[in-house]
Structure formats: C-alpha cells, structure tokens
Amino acid sequence: MSQSTRRNVLLVDDHAVVRTGLKAIIDGPEDLVVCGEAEDEAKAIDHLRALAVDVAVVDLMLGKASALSSIKRFLQYRPQLRILMFSMHDEEVYATRALQAGAHGYLMKGADSDTLIDAVRTVAAGRIYLSPRVQSEILSNMAAGHPVNAAGNLSALTQSELAILQMLGSGQSVKDISRTLGRSEKTIATHRNNIRLKLDLPTSAALVHFATRWVQADGIV
User: Fold this and answer.
1) Are 165 and 214 in contact (CB under 8 A)?
2) What is the pTM assigned to this prediction?
3) CATH number at residue 49
4) Which residue from 9, 37, 163, 173 puts its CA 20 to 30 A from 60's CA?
5) Which of 133, 71, 125, 136 is nearest to 108 (CA)?
C-alpha cells in the first residue's frame, strides 16, 4: 500500500502505557499508521502544526481537565482533522457532548482491537462512529421526541459542571478544585450548588456521596 493511501493517526493520551497499546493495535493494518503521540493539548497542537494528521484519537480527560474544550483548538490548526474520542467514561453521558463539541466519534476503552480499528477507519472515512447501543438510544430518543442526550439528570449539567462533579467524586475539595481550575473558591462553591440543585439533591454531603458513587461506577477511579 502506498504512503498516500495510509491514514496518519495521532494519539493524544496522558498515559504512556495507553499510547503504547494503541500504537501496537493501530500500526497493525496496512492502511493505518501512528504518526505521532502527545500527552497533552500543547504537544498535540505541535504535532498538528508539523504533521499531516488525518485522525486524532483523543482521551476525554487529559490530566484533570476535559479534552472537550481542546477539540475546537485542534480543528483550528487542522480543519480537516477527524477526531475519535477514546475514553473510559460512560458514553451515554459523554458521546453526544463530544459530537456537539466537534468530535466525529466516541469509543470506550473497553472495546476490543477490531472495534478500535473499525472506529478509526469509520471516522477517517468521513463518517460518525458511535457504538450500536448509543446509536439505538439516540434514534429512539429522537423518535420519541426526547432530548438526544438523555442520561437522567446528568444531561442537565454543562461540561464544566460535569468536570467539577468528577473532581468531587474523586475526593477533591472546593479548594482543590479551585486550585486545579484556576477559579475562585466562591465560584466553585456556586457551581457545586448549581449541580446539587440540577441533580435534586438535598445537601452538599448528598452531592459528594452521589458523585463518589457515580465516579466509582463509571470506572473513573
């Protein structure tokens, strides 16, 4: 197969062992090749400037920050880039958010090698990739006139609020989150209260309990 027909894939994940595993799988087929690796947004942008990247496989969380906000910046540097989000986080909550942010597919990290290759090829070919389960749910919700992102009360949260909910569930205090996000403690406390109200929880303690159970059930920690 000629170089011109191969799809160049950039891996963006903050865990080296994950990138190594992805590279071993994606470099197998003749039509795909990993052309670069990055552990954060800045390194990814450096690669997008320097390399002819066709597809970026991007972890939903880079460090403690959501990569959803990185998608638009990636596309600014390479508008024709195709983006596949690859994450352990529940696709029922995040898949639609990723597509709305500009991604072209969403795959959970529990997928097997053949599914990963199929997802990369699907996105590279200009199509959208979602698991059959999420595709069915989205179509069912549309047919019933429900919001596409129907994941219980969690669907009412903004991307920022979801990130804060994850941090609360991972044991971070308001002070910790303030330091991580570079926002005032008052602002974070306000977000926490808004999250509590949207989730219809009676107290901040109940919110932390919910967040902890959600994070553990979702495999985030």
Assistant:
1) yes
2) 0.66
3) 3.40.50.2300
4) 173
5) 133
Cα gap 201→193, rounded to integer Å: 10
Pair (182, 210) in one structural domain: yes
Q: Tokens 């969403």, residue?
A: 106
Reference 104, options 115, 119, 88; nearest CA is 119
Residues 159 and 127 reside in one and the same domain: no
Percent share of the chain, pLDDT over 70: 86
In the chain, where does DSSP find H-type helix?
16-26, 41-50, 68-77, 91-101, 113-124, 132-143, 159-169, 174-181, 185-198, 204-218
> For residue 68, what pLDDT is reported?
84
CB 153, CB 200: distance < 8 Å: yes
